[in-house]
Amino acid sequence: MLTPEGRRVFPKLTVKENIIIGAYTKSKEELNKAFDTAFSLFPKLKERLPQLAGTLSGGEQQMLAISRSLASFPKILLLDEPSMGLAPNIVDVVEEAILKIKSQGVTIIVVEQNIFMAFDVAEYGHVLETGRIIMSGPAMELLNDEGVKKAYMGEIKQ
């Protein structure tokens, strides 16, 4: 299941309706479980249920987009730029949710430019440059690689 870049919630539908759309092939029991999952990951969504998705903040929309994707109970979840345009405190909330989802046995593929967030949640990574994989390996090894540091964190002062 894909959680697209830029969130892409259905702006004229409520938070509740967006989650229902994610679970459209599921039973009522599974739909209730989808709501429970959404609220356990993102408690703020519970108070926003009747609100139109287009009126949510960017962070709340990202929480909703992830919840909508999870409502289908995927085995693999692709998150495309989940931290894009979010305040640092919301990036932390999203990162924590990704780690919880991962701990529940869902395979997660993250496409992310925020190297710190990406390597915090990843076990293995690929570094791309102009569409080509230039490095691959365990996330912590990549994070500590001098070339990656220079490219993504600026010149390193000794």
General description of the model:
- The protein is α/β, with parallel strands linked by helices and about 160 residues long.
- Helices cover about 50% and strands about 15% of the residues.
- It is built from eight helices and five strands.
- The chain has helices spanning about 15-20, 30-40, 45-50, 60-70, 90-105, 115-120, 140-145, 145-155, and strands at about 1-5, 75-80, 105-110, 125-130, 130-140.
- Strands 1-2-3 form a three-stranded parallel β-sheet, covered by helices on one side. A two-stranded antiparallel ribbon has the order 4-5.
- The termini are far apart.
What's the SSE blueprint?
Blueprint: E1 2-3, H1 15-22, H2 28-41, H3 44-48, H4 58-70, E2 76-80, H5 88-103, E3 107-111, H6 115-121, E4 124-129, E5 132-138, H7 139-143, H8 146-153
Parallel strand pairs: 1-2, 2-3
Antiparallel strand pairs: 4-5
Helix pairs in contact: 1-4, 2-4
